[in-house]
Write a structure and sequence with these properties.
Blueprint: H1 10-19, H2 22-36, E1 41-44, E2 49-52, H3 57-61, H4 63-79, E3 85-86, E4 91-100, E5 103-114, H5 123-141, H6 147-171, H7 178-195, H8 198-216, H9 220-240, H10 245-260, H11 265-284, H12 291-304, H13 312-319, H14 323-334, H15 338-356, H16 361-367, H17 373-384, H18 388-392
Antiparallel strand pairs: 1-2, 1-5, 3-4, 4-5
Helix pairs in contact: 2-5, 4-6, 6-8, 7-8, 7-9, 8-11, 9-10, 9-11, 10-11, 12-13, 13-14, 15-17
């Protein structure tokens, strides 16, 4: 359903065109639909649609759905990323807040997505997650939202979530003393640091800190000595992972100075987490990694798992790289982001199957990792310039570069 500005919405529409020139709005909305398959609409702060399209016209007419649109924008602001909600019509929606500095002016929103789509189990969830992330990326690229504020909100939410997860895990892990947690958690922490996996390393640190605090209580000096032991262990693992020894040892020296200023357990937790981040930064800054070998390992892993959901972080882990390092190498060495390479590999596999087998198109789509046949056809046509059926019959050009 397309929206034409009515006289009552003139102020809202002028706001939107003030944020982005009119000639840039339509291409942005069209590009999002072309890339994700979902219609995108710009809404005012009160949930009123201003520009773009809705997935379902019924949602635009439902007064209650307007409240859900406002809530979707607020939840995205709260968590720093799109949050999927169910509106009054029983359809899915997600949004990104449109902001000027720290003031919310409205939102970019997808609404009216059927809860059940004709796709295999799990594919809708994956499509929605990917579409939500793409919406956030596009809003930040266009300067339509406060990227720094949303990143801070995500970091805050992540810390709270990790604390809760650590407490939950520790309900089933009773340690007799601090040494026992070292013996149990040290291998996992060292492995995460060597791979540059910040998230997993933070999880381990949180578990260790929880037990240290429960045993050490208010004995700050005891807690500091245990934390120093952890830093020594982390820096050793970083050097083994290829980090520059001079840089890593510098971190170790700086940690002694900072630790002396720590006065309580809360400051100690902040200090220790900062040391972890610096250690992993030291690994990522090193040029000693055999990048060609690691990228080849990543490509081999992708080729072997094209039919599966294939998150970037999983491929990075298989290659022995942190997600951020992996993304950097992809762009620097291959000249494209992970999602583009994955799409190309899947389309190349599809071309091979279409040319050398008689599999049904739906089966080709599944074997190449596409959620459903219609989505497969859209992506295939975009990459090759023709439909899968035409390609099979030989009416095609060479795939696009």
């Amino acid at each position: 359903m397309s929206f034409q500005p009515d006289p009552g919405a003139a102020t809202a529409v002028s706001l939107w065109t003030g944020l982005l020139p009119p000639e840039e709005w339509r291409p942005l909305l069209r590009r999002y639909r072309a890339e994700t398959g979902y219609a995108l609409v710009a809404v005012a702060a009160d949930g009123t649609p201003c520009l773009g399209e809705m997935q379902a016209p019924a949602c635009a007419r439902q007064p209650s759905c307007r409240d859900y649109r406002v809530q979707a924008v607020q939840e995205a602001l709260r968590w720093g990323e799109p949050t999927v909600l169910c509106c009054g019509c029983g359809r899915l929606m997600w949004a990104v807040p449109v902001m000027v500095n720290q003031q919310v002016r409205g939102g970019l929103l997808v609404a009216g997505v059927p809860l059940r789509e004709p796709t295999r189990a799990g594919a809708l969830d994956r499509r929605v997650r990917e579409a939500g992330q793409r919406l956030l990326d596009m809003a930040e690229e266009a300067g339509l939202t406060n990227a720094a504020l949303l990143a801070q909100r995500r970091a805050d939410a992540r810390r709270e979530r990790e604390k809760a997860e650590a407490l939950h895990v520790l309900k089933d892990r009773l340690y007799d003393d601090i040494r026992s947690i070292y013996l149990r958690e040290e291998p996992a922490l060292l492995a995460a640091i060597r791979r540059g996996e910040r998230r997993e390393a933070r999880h381990v640190i949180n578990r260790v800190l929880t037990v240290i605090y429960s045993v050490g209580g208010s004995q700050v000096e005891l807690l500091k000595s245990m934390a120093m032991e952890l830093v020594v262990m982390m820096t050793r693992a970083a050097v083994q992972a290829g980090g520059d020894p001079t840089h890593i040892l510098g971190i170790n020296y700086q940690s002694l100075t900072g630790l002396a200023k720590v006065a309580d357990s809360e400051e100690l937790a902040t200090w220790l987490c900062a040391m972890l981040e610096q250690v992993i930064d030291g690994i990522e800054a090193s040029d000693r990694h055999p990048n060609a070998v690691q990228l080849a390992r990543a490509l081999d892993y992708m080729e072997a798992h094209l039919a599966e959901a294939l998150p970037r972080d999983e491929v990075a882990r298989a290659a022995g790289l942190s997600p951020s390092r992996f993304s950097h190498l992809m762009r620097a060495k291959l000249g494209m982001p992970f999602t583009e390479l994955l799409t190309r590999l899947r389309v190349d596999r599809a071309c091979h199957l279409l040319a050398h087998s008689q599999r049904e198109l739906a089966q080709v789509a599944l074997e190449c990792g596409f959620g459903d046949q219609s989505y497969f056809s859209r992506v295939f046509r975009k990459q090759t310039g023709c439909s899968p059926s035409d390609y099979r019959q030989g009416r095609h050009q060479s795939p696009k570069d």
